[in-house]
Every structure is written in structure tokens, then in C-alpha cells.
């Protein structure tokens, strides 16, 4: 049993007593198995989950999954759902990488969202900097906090989020900005009740012009009224002025650099131009994805 996980969650006897029912519902235990577990639990004075693991009826991962459900902290087991395995926040929420993501989330909550802001853009210099993957994982950890979170794929040149979350090709941001769709293009991510995705949609011939329209500002206002957190995955800064247009509308931007890859001078130049476009540079992170 992972003691660090159990100690991190509050001890709720009522919740613990329902663990057997959840394991039964999931098909992890039979009624006879549950009786064996209850007998050991009573004889040794241990928790239901610990007894089930000792008997070899379930794994530690099974117990962690149930605990997460009991305390409204959703995550997935490997192979579950059709999300990208690179979404560590979804599949490995107790790893050091995700602990770092939660620390960043806390800083953003205190330094940005606590100021009444709802939207934040995520930007990298090149496609290899990992900004899209970082944005996807950050969206997951915000939703795990219970924040109604929307991830908008604003990369209308080479979108990544639709594939990351296993969403079938459909209309999205570009179609909405062109007046060919409405907010129905937003898709809820089934595995995470508080997480939604707006895909990029049809790849347009004029992405910069679409994103620079006043309609984008109006859209952002609408989204901020509906969600606690709106994260924009921007096209790479090196691809053109698309990123500047979105960041200016969002109001704030978090810069992402890749360790041993991104040049400091390029990040500095990106920060300067973001500020000139009207976006506040909230901070920067270095990733090793």
C-alpha cells in the first residue's frame, strides 16, 4: 500500500466503508471476496483496502483508484480511456512530474486567477518546446481541483489537443470564429467531469486573420463567463503572429521552455513581444517532456 497516498487523503470512515461497494461495482471483487476481506479487516483491525491487497484480491492501483473516486480526485489507470499516455496528470497523478504541475497550479491560482482573471494563454517558441503537452496536463490538474476548466486549442496551423484527448475530428474554434458553428463545438472530456475541450476545428487558410478579429475578444468574454479557468494552447511563437493575437485577447500568458533545447534569448524576445501585444507575462516554466 502506498502510504504517502493514503496519508495525503483525509480519513473518512463513511467513505472507507463504501470502498467494498465500489470494488464490487467495478467487478474487482465478488460478494464472497468481500466477505473474506471484511473478516480479515475485523480480525486484524486494518482498513478494507489494506485487507483486500493482503489477500491478493486487488492491487494497490485498484485501491488508489477507488480512493480517488471517493474524494473526487479523478484519474485513470494505464490503458483506460483513449487519452494520450503522455497525459501524466491523467494516468500518473502521484508522480513527481504531476506534483510539480500542482505546484504551478497553486502559483497560478494565487498570482493570476485570484485576481479575478479567468483566461490564460500557454506559449512556447517552437513546436518542440512541449507547450501543448504542458497545457493539456495543466488543464487536467485544474479540473482535478474541481475548477470548471476549458482547454481551447488555438493552434489553427498544427493542432495537438484533439489527438491528445482522443476526440474525433469535428468543428472547433476556427469554424466558430468564421461564423460556421457555435459553442456546441465544445466537447466534455468523459473521464474528467470538470474538463472540456474546444478543438481547433477546420484548418483555415487565414489563421492569423481569424484570431485577430474582434469576434475572438467577444468569444473570450463568453467563455470566461461560463468557466472558472480557460486555457489557450497557442501556436508556436516562431510560426508567426497568431500567438500574439490570442495572448493579447486572453490578457495573460505563461511561457514554456524546454530544458536543454529552448534558447533563453528566444524566450526573452517572446516575452517582450507578448507584453507589447497587451498580454501580461504571468511567468515561465521549464519542462522536460
Principal-axis shape: elongated
Please bin the fraction of helical residues: 40-55%
H-E string: HHHHHHHHEHEHHEEHHEHEHE
**Which class best fits the helix and strand makeup?**
alpha/beta
pLDDT < 50 stretches: 1-17
Number of helices: 15
The percentage of residues in β strands lies in: 5-15%
Would you count the extended β strands for me? 7
Calculate Rg over CA atoms. 22 Å
Summed over residues and divided by their number, the pLDDT gives a mean of 87
Describe the strand arrangement of the main beta sheet, using strand numbers.
3-4-2-5-1-6-7
Largest sheet: number of strands, sense, barrel closure: 7 strands, mixed
Calculate the terminal CA-CA distance, rounded to whole Å: 28 Å
Organism: Massilia phyllostachyos
Pfam family, one: CBP_BcsQ
Protein name: Chain length determinant protein tyrosine kinase EpsG
GO molecular function, one term: kinase activity
Amino acid at each position: 500500500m502506498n502510504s504517502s497516498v493514503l496519508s495525503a487523503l483525509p480519513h473518512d470512515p463513511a467513505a472507507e466503508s463504501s470502498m467494498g461497494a465500489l470494488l464490487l461495482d467495478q467487478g474487482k471483487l465478488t460478494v464472497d471476496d468481500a466477505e473474506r476481506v471484511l473478516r480479515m479487516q475485523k480480525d486484524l483491525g486494518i482498513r478494507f483496502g489494506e485487507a483486500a491487497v493482503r489477500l491478493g484480491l486487488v492491487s494497490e492501483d485498484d485501491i488508489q483508484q477507488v480512493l480517488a473516486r471517493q474524494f473526487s480526485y479523478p484519474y485513470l489507470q494505464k490503458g483506460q480511456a483513449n487519452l494520450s499516455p503522455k497525459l501524466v496528470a491523467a494516468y500518473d497523478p502521484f508522480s513527481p512530474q504531476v506534483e510539480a504541475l500542482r505546484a504551478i497550479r497553486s502559483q497560478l491560482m494565487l498570482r493570476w486567477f485570484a485576481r479575478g482573471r479567468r483566461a490564460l494563454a500557454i506559449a512556447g517558441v517552437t513546436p518542440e518546446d512541449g507547450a501543448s503537452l504542458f497545457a493539456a496536463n495543466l488543464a487536467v490538474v485544474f479540473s482535478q481541483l474541481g475548477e470548471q476548466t476549458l482547454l481551447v486549442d488555438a493552434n489553427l496551423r498544427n493542432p495537438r489537443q484533439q489527438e491528445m484527448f482522443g476526440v474525433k475530428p469535428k468543428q472547433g474554434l476556427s469554424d466558430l470564429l468564421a461564423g460556421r458553428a457555435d459553442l456546441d463545438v465544445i466537447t466534455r472530456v468523459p473521464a474528467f467531469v470538470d474538463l472540456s475541450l474546444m478543438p481547433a476545428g477546420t484548418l483555415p487558410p487565414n489563421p492569423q486573420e481569424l484570431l485577430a478579429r474582434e469576434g475572438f475578444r467577444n468569444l473570450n468574454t463568453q467563455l470566461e463567463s461560463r468557466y472558472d479557468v480557460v486555457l489557450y494552447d497557442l501556436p508556436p511563437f516562431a510560426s508567426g503572429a497568431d500567438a500574439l493575437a490570442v495572448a493579447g485577447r486572453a490578457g495573460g500568458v505563461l511561457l514554456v521552455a524546454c530544458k536543454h533545447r529552448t534558447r533563453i534569448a528566444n524566450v526573452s524576445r517572446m516575452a517582450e513581444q507578448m507584453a507589447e501585444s497587451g498580454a501580461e507575462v504571468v511567468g515561465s516554466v521549464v519542462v522536460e517532456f
